[in-house]
Design a protein that fits this description.
heterodimer; A: about 425 residues; about 75% helix; about 0% strand; B: about 525 residues; six-stranded mixed sheet; 17 helices; globular
Chain lengths: ~425, ~525
């Protein structure tokens, strides 16, 4: 997973005026960065701790290449939903319908390919379209009719669940065509000579490392061009080495099993893409602005209604994608698919630093939050903890994360 | 005349960084109507909050004597038990409860927690008769007009056996007819032995109902006058309100020389705005103003004069309902129905309420500055972060925004620095016309001077500036021309040479005679 993490990790903003790379200055620099991104680093550290703990408790099973692959596949759909949910929550809304919509899209895919023998790529496109339509209908009601998102999506939750059961006539429908199954469940194809490693995955890792380095160097040069303060050279090299090492470790882990799961590639593209949009695109800025202070955003000329509409449209498409991944992975569409997914996605966002009142959060945060829940799930499964206790512990994790946040804010506020 | 019912002695109230009241003394006689007046920010509302226990005993200095006893109110309930009831400018009614439920809210006619409806309705009907409100007590408060809601508030006060009734600008939101009724009611209650304190800007109202008037300025009592005495003219009251000290400092300005023939940068003709809810009320009534390039034009007015409402309605209809009027930019008629259109035509509005309408407090300085013109640092929908940061750094230096980096959340800055961020944001948008609404409200003297300097530079660059302010000295110090507004209407236009605080205040307190 850390391929995504590293690709997105923002350069810790260099504080002004600290050009000298003295030992004290370096430490100060790191402390400043840490303080500014306390929430994100805090969760990253927590995630690291959880991983280490479970690694010890499971006697090293957690980080076995096979289990890492598994972890990705098990959590991919929640992570996809969490990305969309993060946008919704930053905009100051909530979406309760995504679990049901996920099931509904899965059912649509099954009816199209199994009952009507439609070619699967076409079915995929149609399914994404169904998600877009569902999302835009809800978005229209929320943005333009002014119905609260909680109500609209609560209705959507009931409605899509009902439609799923009608579509499937209460039965599980499958199996899916091979191609779709492979897309949701499979790995990158095996090519080239036998190296004991998965070649394509290795190649991908190398390309990723190269692009990360290139990106960082280019960024640094641009900063200098604009005469802005940059990280001291020592720090910059240190950071590059850390990034490269992280990508390398994950690549080797995955490459020593069956290679990178296709879903991981999709997820990686989404994380990098959405991270970029939220950070650098005008659209992303406008989402933060309307969530942070709606009247001020309106007075600044932000088209708040259109942005809200687009956020829900986007959520619909991502929910459809998650629905396809779930269906392909289970190789069947079930009327009970996707139950509670909305809650998992919402929990991921809040663990990852979103605020109930909107305006705060990052895509990376949603992924970290989702992974915290995912690793807890997976680790407890390995330790054969019952689902009863799993729920209790996940609930406590959510409380602890947000509680820490509140405590941290109060401390710095007063 | 009867002796004092209330004495407030040497009241001092300090908020973090601001001394709101420094040595205020107020004496109110039994059975009189006592008016308090003063400019915005003179400390009227704070004084009343001290009296009613909103600011509890211990958070201020000085002492309060009510009916010759020293009082230590720890909250509103304590002051209400003594018979002191305050009716705030923003009415404190629950819109979806009935009139009767509102009257007895927190004070229900109940036995063991269950409400006795017969008792409640009977008592409510009596109270409504006393205040002259002809409505059924089970009517929802949301279904009656603001004027009637004001009467419900008074009925509520009467239900608490009020001895001293405090009304904070009771007619600010009312039309002439409702104002007249309300003032009559105050006189009626006076006959029943209820003492009232009325805070008001409207001098004609004060003359009509009040027996004496206490004038506050800059958190101090200036004087108490007998309204019925012959020498207490409106001019006399105005002189007390504005004082004569001009100790503010302003950058040297060369007055603007109007260019011959050139059309005004911005011209507003016959602008009328209706209240967003009460559409019978015109909050801005047929106002026409113009401003030329390089000129700073002030708009003076007291609370409720309609200045902000005018500016916000012109700027993308962000307040109220548009009724009529046209906007011309450089002589050509333009549409400003949305904020985007207004900004597109080179108009910027810098709000009076930076925390609610100006800034995203949880976001950083650079992102706040770029928000209204993101397109300038973006290509094909993608923001160039480096360019954005460079722009923000530029403003941090040129505007002297005191922050370690531009990545600091705006919420952590002081008021003056926040104001500089809001100004930077709109200067970055590159407008031709800037409408500045109370640009120096709530910031310290040093920052004020810096902001005046920026405004002066903007005008020198050929931008047209509309400067809305409640502080007359700063309008006098900065503007080439000053419009005055009162109760939604334009009441005067004064060139720099003729402008004095007295002249402006006379125009600002001009109001139609209260009818009835």
């Amino acid at each position: 997973m850390s391929t995504d993490v590293t690709a997105k990790t923002p350069a810790p903003a260099p504080p002004g005026g600290s050009g000298a790379a003295t030992g004290g200055g370096l430490l100060q620099l790191m402390l400043n960065g840490l303080r500014r991104n306390m929430r994100q680093y805090g969760m990253l550290i927590a995630l690291g701790l959880i991983v280490v703990l479970f690694e010890i408790w499971t006697g090293g099973d957690l980080l076995l290449p096979r289990n890492v692959s598994n972890l990705v596949l098990q959590n991919s759909y929640i992570l996809i939903l969490a990305i969309g949910m993060m946008l919704v929550i930053i905009a100051g809304h909530i979406d309760l319908s995504v679990g049901s919509l996920t099931a509904f899209v899965g059912a649509t895919a099954a009816v199209l390919t199994v009952n009507h023998h439609m070619a699967w790529p076409l079915a995929v496109v149609l399914c994404l379209l169904v998600g877009a339509v569902a999302g835009s209908l809800q978005g229209f009601m929320i943005a333009y009719l002014g119905i609260p998102s909680f109500i609209v999506t609560l209705a959507g939750m009931l409605l899509f669940r009902g439609l799923t059961e009608i579509l499937l006539k209460g039965q599980t429908l499958g199996p899916f065509p091979d191609g779709l199954q492979k897309a949701g469940n499979g790995f990158l194809p095996e090519v080239g000579p036998n190296t004991n490693y998965h070649n394509l995955t290795l190649l991908l890792g190398i390309v990723l490392i190269a692009s990360v380095v290139w990106q960082e160097v280019r960024d640094r040069r641009r900063q200098q061009e604009f005469a802005l303060d940059v990280l001291p050279t020592k720090m910059f090299v240190l950071k590059l080495v850390a990034l490269v090492a992280a990508v390398l470790v994950v690549t080797l882990l995955l490459a020593s099993y069956k290679g990178a799961p296709i879903v991981l590639i999709i997820l990686g593209v989404l994380v990098v893409g959405y991270g970029y949009v939220m950070r650098n695109a005008v659209f992303g800025r406008h989402i933060y602005a309307i969530g942070g202070n709606l009247p001020a955003a309106k007075l600044s000329g932000v088209k708040d209604k259109r942005v809200t509409f687009q956020v829900f449209l986007n959520m619909g498409v991502l929910a459809a994608l998650a629905g396809l991944v779930v269906a392909a992975r289970l190789n069947a569409a079930s009327p009970k698919a996707g139950v509670n997914y909305e809650l998992e996605a919402i929990a991921s966002s809040f663990i990852g630093g979103a605020s109930m009142s909107g305006g705060v959060g990052t895509v990376l945060g949603a992924i970290i939050g989702g992974l915290v829940l995912g690793v807890l799930n997976n680790g407890m499964n390995l330790l054969s903890v019952g689902t009863d206790w799993q729920q209790v512990i996940k609930g406590l994790a959510l409380l602890a994360a947000v509680g820490f946040d509140v405590w941290n804010k109060r401390k710095s506020g007063s | 005349m009867a002796g004092p019912v209330l004495e407030m002695r040497s009241i001092v109230k300090t908020f973090p960084g601001v001394k709101a009241l420094s040595d205020v003394t107020l004496t109110v006689r039994q059975g009189e109507v006592h008016a308090i007046c003063g400019e915005n920010g003179a400390g009227k509302s704070t004084l009343m909050k001290v009296l009613s226990g909103v600011h509890p005993h211990g958070t201020y200095e000085g002492e309060i004597l009510f009916e010759e006893e020293v009082c230590h109110f720890k909250d509103i309930r304590a002051s209400e038990q003594r018979g002191i009831v305050i009716i705030h400018q923003e009415l404190a009614l629950v819109p979806f409860l009935s009139i009767a439920e509102n009257i007895f809210l927190g004070n229900e006619h109940a036995r063991r927690g269950f409400i006795n409806w017969n008792d409640t309705l009977k008592h409510a009907t009596e109270l409504l008769r006393r205040v002259g409100l002809d409505e059924h007590p089970e009517t929802r408060v949301a279904d009656i007009g603001v004027g009637k809601q004001q009467l419900v508030e008074i009925a509520k006060a009467l239900s608490k056996s009020v001895k001293l009734l405090i009304l904070d600008e009771p007619t600010a939101a009312l039309n002439d007819e409702d104002s007249g009724k309300l003032l009559d009611l105050i006189l009626e209650l006076k006959k029943q032995g209820i003492t009232s304190i009325i805070i008001s800007h409207k001098l004609n109202e004060i003359r009509r109902v009040a027996d004496s008037v206490t004038i506050l300025r800059d958190g101090r009592t200036i004087e108490t006058l007998d309204v019925k005495a012959a020498e207490t003219t409106e001019e006399r009251i105005i002189a007390g309100m504005v004082g004569r000290d001009l100790d503010h400092r302003f950058p040297e300005r060369t007055p603007h020389q109007p260019e011959e023939g050139a059309a005004p940068a911005l011209e507003i003709r016959g602008w009328t705005v209706l209240h967003p809810i009460d559409q019978q009320r015109k909050v801005v009534d047929d106002v026409s103003i113009e401003v030329r390039r390089g000129e700073i034009v002030g708009i003076a007015g007291l609370m409720g004069a309609g200045r902000t409402e005018l500016a916000m309605n012109v700027f993308g209809r962000t307040y109220g309902r548009y009724a009529s009027g046209t906007v011309l930019k450089d002589g050509k008629e333009i549409r400003t129905k949305t904020v985007a259109e207004a900004v597109g035509h080179g108009i910027a509005y810098v709000t009076e309420d930076r925390k609610h309408y100006g800034l995203n407090l949880i976001d950083t300085i650079n992102r706040n500055i770029s928000l209204s013109a993101l397109g300038k640092v973006a290509r094909r929908g993608v923001v160039d972060e480096h360019e954005e940061r460079q722009v923000a750094e530029g403003f941090r230096k040129s505007m002297n925004i005191k922050a370690p980096t531009v990545f600091e959340p705006v919420g952590k800055l002081s008021g003056g620095n926040q104001q500089k961020v809001v100004l930077s944001k709109w200067i970055f948008a590159g407008p031709d016309v800037l409408i500045l609404d109370e640009p120096t409200r709530g910031i310290d003297v040093g920052a004020k001077y810096e902001i005046y300097t920026v405004i002066d530079q903007l005008a020198a660059q050929g931008k047209a500036v509309v400067f809305i302010s409640s502080e007359l000295p700063e309008l006098l110090g900065m503007c080439d021309r000053i419009y005055t507004m009162a109760a939604g209407r334009l009441t005067g236009e004064v060139p720099r040479a003729e402008a004095t605080q007295e002249v402006l205040m006379r125009h600002m307190t001009k109001d139609k005679e209260v009818t009835r």
